[in-house]
Amino acid sequence: MSAGLRLGRRDLAHGVGGLWLLLACLTIAVAGLSAVTSLSSAIESTIEGQARELLGGDLALSVAQRSATPAEREAIARLGTVRESVTLRSTAQIGGQTALVDLSGVDEGWPAAGRVTLASGRMPAAATDAAIGRELAERFSLRLGSPLRIGYGDYRVSGIIEKLPAPSGFALAPPVLVSRAGLDASRLVQPGSLYTSSYRVALPSGASYEGIGSSFQKRFPEGGWRVTDRSEAASGTRRFTERAGQMLLLIALGALGIGSIGIASAASAFAASRRSTIAILKVHGARTRDLALMLGTSVTLLALVAILLGTLVGATVPAIVGRAAADLLPVAPDPSPQWGALGRSAVFGLLVTLAAAWVPLARAARARPAAVLRGDVDEGSPDRRDLLVPLLAAAAVSALAILTSGNEAVTAATIAGGVALAFLFAGAGKLLALAARRLGSRGGPVARLGLAALHRPGAATVRLSVALGLGLALLVALAGIGGSVRAELAGNIPAKAPALFMLDIPATEEARFRDLAARELPGADLRLVPSLRGPVTALNGQPVSALKAIPEGAWILRGDRGLTFARELPEANQVVEGEWWPADYAGPPLVSLDIEAARALGLKIGDTMTIAVLGSPIEARIASFRTIDWRSLGFNFAIIFAPGTLEQAPYTLMATASPERGASTLGFERALAAGLPMVSTIRVSDVVAQVTTILEGLDNAIRLATLVAIVIGVTVLAGAVAATRRTRTRESVLLKLVGATRAQVLAAQGIEFAAMAGGIVTLAFVTGTAAAYGVVTWLFELPFLPDWPSLLTLPLAGMAVAVLTALVAAWPALRARPATALRSI
């Protein structure tokens, strides 16, 4: 064993000095980071491990508003075992009440792979059988044998569905499965109806699914086929998990950054406690590198213990979340340890410890014995050579965070923003110290003592400013964002949105629909637009299937898109480039496109898009780009055709109904279900409630992650104050010897902490509020409507917690007895 390691082992036997702060900060930070990364990895692991079962096959081929042609069916049948389903949204009538459902008519033996998990009962066999989702059964107290009506068909519940294959992972409405004969009995699949035909394929054993889907699309390029293979199973869940995980990861990294300040403070306190030992060892011939190894051994061992504890906590999170939030998650997280995520979290912890602790330990190891033994407390400036390792470690942390994140640009921007904020709060701390120096001669002796503590040698004003400021700014920003989103969901959206959306209204029944609405909802604002669906199959002649990857933001290329045609520019739309066509336009096909989608795809006016409508390709020239106010919650289509192209295709109508304030829509819904059962009715309140539930769950997770950052900030504050206990004890004793009371000493320290916390808390509130305003208004394009009373309590609560924590940490120094303390100083 080398001399440095032997010295480190003996040094640890005498205690860890101030390293308890390193242990606390690093444990909490690594626990938060490993929890976030483990949960995301566990969900991804479940999806990858059960991809075939989640998809219902190795491959799913789907097409809108039609079935496969004989040639397409033959090509699909050659691939393997095939099971077909036809899915559309419909309204179920249940004992005088109505509910939106996802109705699917499935082949016998559906799906091709995996199975439908039933809580009770059996899959539909007869044309009158229906297996329904558990949430629908619970909502309407349905049991096996209960009747319900969908379209023109009467059914009885044959089974209660627990889980079933779903390509996206998320569903707006509960599922209802019937046989193909049962679907025919509903008479809902008509020309122009918005339905999707899906063909799930189980490939022969050992066959690879890669490339099969794209080959099929190339063979039938004009068919408008969408291909989903096992690698894209539960795509909606994947995207949601990636977005949520990205946000939580950034917060966890922020907490780790705050923790690095505590690690640096702990290393400084530990090094200071070993200054005399180092000086004595140097006098007896110890080498600097051996002393550095002695200090590094203690820090490394404590860091490894902290990382072990943190990763143990993170390893349990997937299992805990899986049990606690089973009903909210489309897939259950894999409860086994996610070794890759835990390993990355450990590496993050080691690199951050290296970056934060290197300088104080290196400086202490090189301290001159003469200066230490004379009692000098000034540690001097760090050697420039000491900065190389911390800078490399910090760069490695940033690179690892960027490379392992789902969005490199966002992560890099967030890290840059965090560093900028850290410098901002560090500068604010220096300004506070400078202001305290300038104001030091004013006020009474107690106030002067309190202010002097902010700029005395060894004061932790800058470090505490960064830790407290970053944590509180993050909390304020998230509270402002969450409050604005909740206000929009709870107030503005219900106030502006129509009460009902109605789909699949036959164009031939428009007059009857209007008469029914006039009778049941007198005075309601009724709006109808034509509706079709179809995928974008080519851009400027290049097939979408040939694209290596769909660009971020190009959501119009993902699956079928809602289509319409219009003579006049719709409300909540504004042409920003190009021109809207004349109302009497008659010419080659033209389309108007959402400007954001156009930018994502790099399109310009005059480019062409090919869209498959009922299997027929239509190439249209882009005439204009539009901005769309999606918050209007009216009929907003990303793609609108000019007149003269789609009128001859079989289409249905979509409608919105906005009744007079206080008017009930239940009578209209019942009359609509009885008179026009093919029409699907969506209550906006139900959609808002579902979205609110998802967002509240995400908001709670974000708040919990932010709480970790706040806890670390408070720990750093307490640790930094405790690290100065020796100095504070000496000052307290000297003040008492010259006549100061304990209350006066306490008041002086209270002024010190209140002055520091007050300035930093104010700056944190301003920066957090500004960040929330930018995200809400520019990114989300929502009005900034936070819960101001709750938002304003955050800085006040933050200041109170900071002052109270600091006073508690300083209390042992305040109650020291002069005689006892003087003997130990």
TrEMBL record:
Q: Could you state one GO cellular component term attached to this entry?
A: plasma membrane
Membrane-spanning segments: 12-36, 247-270, 291-321, 341-365, 386-403, 409-433, 464-485, 701-723, 753-780, 792-814
Location relative to the cell: Cell membrane
- Please give the InterPro entries that the UniProt record associates with this protein: ABC3_permease_C, MacB_PCD, Membrane_comp_ABC_pdt
| Pfam families assigned | FtsX, MacB_PCD
What is the membrane topology here? Multi-pass membrane protein
Query: What are the ABC3 transporter permease C-terminal domain coordinates in residue numbering?
Result: 250-367, 705-816
The keyword Methyltransferase belongs to this UniProt entry's keyword annotation: no
Q: 4Fe-4S as a keyword?
A: no
What range(s) does the MacB-like periplasmic core domain occupy?
21-210
Provide this UniProt record's keywords sorted from A to Z: Cell membrane, Membrane, Transmembrane, Transmembrane helix
Which protein is depicted?
Putative ABC transport system permease protein
